[in-house]
Amino acid sequence: MANARPLLDSLTALHFARLKISFLQGQVKERESQRDDLAGQLSECHQNTGQQIGHQVDDKQQIGQLTQQKNSGQLKTWLLGAALALSIYLHVVR
């Protein structure tokens, strides 16, 4: 009977150690699941960033085209004005 108490204490300690290990394994699985979810979100962010960069490049190209069209329109307006002024001047001088 004298040996029974230390053996019972050891078995009790082993039981609680196994419970703690089981609890910790559950936490590890939960953290791994969270990590996987975050990895998926990070991957999605990288894809979205790439798309946004593509849109930004497209927008800059469109801005460049619109600026060229505006400048071309201004030049045409100026040239037409100059031609009109020259035409009026030549008409008056003659």
How would you characterize this protein structure?
The chain has 94 residues and is mostly helical. The chain is 96% helix and 0% strand. The chain contains 1 helix and no strands. The protein has one helix at residues 4-93. It starts with a helix and ends with a helix. The mean pLDDT is 93.
Quickly give the structural class: mainly alpha
Total helices: the number is: 1
Shape: rod-shaped
* Low-confidence runs of at least 5 consecutive residues: none
Largest sheet, described in full? Answer: none
Total E-strand runs: 0
Helix content: over 70%
- Report how far the terminal alpha carbons are from each other: 138 Å
Average pLDDT rating: 93
The sequence of SSEs as H and E is H
Percentage beta strand: under 5%
Q: Radius of gyration in whole Å, from Cα?
A: 40 Å
Task: Name its key features.
94 residues, 1 helix, single chain
